[in-house]
Amino acid sequence: MRIYIAERTLYLKNTDEEVKEVNLRIGQPYQKEDGSWACPIQLKGLFEDLSDVNGDDSFQALMLAQNLARTLLNALAEKGWTVYSYADKEADVDTLFQVGV
Hints:
This protein is α+β, with helices and mostly antiparallel strands. The protein contains two helices and eight strands, in the order E-E-E-E-E-E-H-E-E-H. The chain is elongated and about 45 Å long.
């Protein structure tokens, strides 16, 4: 069973001006049977079937999952999509992943 430990709703406007509500969720890392670790990630409303992210330990799995979300959102922004942290507040993707902002 996946346990999600962090969640944020984002709004993305594509180049056709269509707005998508995206639920970004990062899960609690868990140890797999082979001793490696994995971390669940979702970008529901955008990418429906992302695989859990694997790492050597729980910390690496968590950081790689966070980095995957950032990378996917930045790729869309580079293609002209606009990201909003609230329905009406435009946000820079990198700023969404900074501490103390």
